[in-house]
Design goal:
By secondary structure, this protein is mostly beta strands. The protein is built from no helices and 5 strands. It is elongated, with a radius of gyration of 33 Å. It starts with 8 loop residues before the first strand and ends in a 61-residue tail after the last strand.
């Protein structure tokens, strides 16, 4: 019976766990520039198969190279090295969730724009109703 060749092992941080049985892992490494000798940061985003959905966002995981599971998944989560302390967001029930009007999302340091209906007139000339004629313009009353 043939033995398998050695498989690559890499460590990275889970950046997304929204898919079922799949995670996106960011693997960072340092590479020395061939001419200048300066170390350059390189990163890869790898899709990995997570059979039991044990890895969550922020976890440090070890991946092992495996046969292609799909078009983009060629890695498998071997183990979780360090669990993150990120708390998952709480989902509120519909009756508890508050619907916020657009007015409450305005900028805190800018005054709110007033509607034309609620706007108060600044001068007494503007206070007249739009349907009533002005006294100064009514010159045809004597005739």
């Amino acid at each position: 019976m043939k033995t398998r060749g050695s498989r690559r092992h890499v460590e990275g941080v889970v950046t997304s766990d929204r898919m079922n049985k799949s995670v996106v892992v960011e693997v960072k490494r340092l590479v020395k520039h061939p001419f200048y000798g300066k170390f350059i940061r390189r990163r890869m985003k790898l899709m990995a198969h997570d059979e039991d959905n044990v890895a969550h966002t922020g976890d440090r995981v070890e991946l092992v190279e495996t046969r292609p599971r799909s078009k983009s998944k060629k890695w498998r989560v071997l183990r979780v090295l360090q669990a993150s302390h990120v708390v998952a967001p709480i989902e509120l029930e519909e009756d508890v969730a508050k619907v916020i009007s657009p007015r409450e999302h305005e900028h805190p340091h800018r005054p709110a724009k007033a509607d034309a209906a609620t706007e108060t007139p600044e001068t007494p000339e503007d206070a007249e109703a739009p349907g009533e004629p002005d006294e100064a313009q009514d010159t045809n009353e004597d005739a």
